Inverse folding.
């Protein structure tokens, strides 16, 4: 499908959007795995999601993506 809109964003913005998309898909996958494991009683998967290491790494990734978007906004505004 062709549109009249042109994609004039820089590489950093496109990369940040792609990383955010895959992070949100991974979070959706984690949520589905958590719900299904809770329903069927797989307690070892539930224990993995309750560990602090998972949440520490998740917060680091979210902070990285936030910084990436901040840099992309600064680069876009200077054009």
């Amino acid at each position: 499908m062709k549109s009249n809109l042109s994609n004039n964003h820089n590489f950093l913005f496109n990369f940040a959007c792609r990383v955010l998309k895959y992070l949100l898909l991974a979070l959706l996958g984690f949520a589905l795995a958590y719900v299904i494991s809770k329903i069927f009683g797989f307690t070892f998967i539930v224990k993995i999601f309750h560990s602090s290491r998972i949440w520490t790494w998740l917060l680091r990734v979210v902070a990285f993506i936030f910084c990436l978007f901040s840099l992309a906004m600064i680069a876009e505004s200077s054009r």
About this structure: The radius of gyration is 18 Å. The chain has a mean pLDDT of 84.
